[in-house]
Amino acid sequence: MTGVRDPGLARRFLARRLVARHTLIITFLVTAGLVTAGVAASAAWAASAGRIPGEPWGRGTAADSCVVCHSLERGGPFRVAPNLFGIVGAEKARDRDWYGYTTALRQKGGTWTEADLDQYLADASAFAPGTTKTIRITDPEERKQIIAFLKTLHR
C-alpha cells in the first residue's frame, strides 16, 4: 500500500515555519530598535544635562560639596540631608514630614536668609546648637559663591 500524501500538508507546514521565523525576526528587530532608542534617549538626556547618568545634579558648580548629601533639582529626593531647591527665602525645616531635621533646627524658626545661610554654612552647631550638620565652609568667599548659586535655584 502506497501512502497518499496530502500535498497541502507540506505547504501548510512550510507556511507555519515561515511565519514563525518572520515573527521571531520582527520581534528581534523591534526589541533591538527599542533598546537602541532607549540608549540614544538616555545619552541625549545626559548630554543635555551636561553630566553623566547617575551623577548628582550640581557637580562642578559652587555647590559641588553640597551634592554629597543634598539634591539640588526641583522635586529632587531627600538624601542624607534635605533638597536645597528654593532654599533661599524658604521656611527653615520646611518639609515637616522629613525625619532628618533636628529639634534644634525645627525650633530655630523663620526663613533662610542669606545671612542665616552664611552663618549655618560657617558653623551649623553655633547657628543651631544641637544640629547634626558637621561640615563647615570656613572660607567666606566660598560661602558667598554657594549662597549665590543657591539663590538661582528658585521655583
UniProtKB/TrEMBL annotation:
Domain spans labelled Cytochrome c: 33-154
GO molecular function: electron transfer activity; heme binding; metal ion binding
Record's keyword annotation contains Hydrolase: no
Biological process per Gene Ontology, one example term: photosynthesis
Membrane spanning residue stretches: none
UniProt-listed InterPro entries: Cyt_c-like_dom (IPR009056), Cyt_c-like_dom_sf (IPR036909), Cyt_c_1A/1B (IPR002327)
Record carries keyword DNA repair: no
UniProt KW keywords: Electron transport, Heme, Iron, Metal-binding, Photosynthesis, Transport
PANTHER family recorded: CYTOCHROME C
The protein's role, per its UniProt record: Cytochrome c2 is found mainly in purple, non-sulfur, photosynthetic bacteria where it functions as the electron donor to the oxidized bacteriochlorophyll in the photophosphorylation pathway. However, it may also have a role in the respiratory chain and is found in some non-photosynthetic bacteria.
Protein name: Cytochrome c2
UniProt organism field: Candidatus Defluviicoccus seviourii
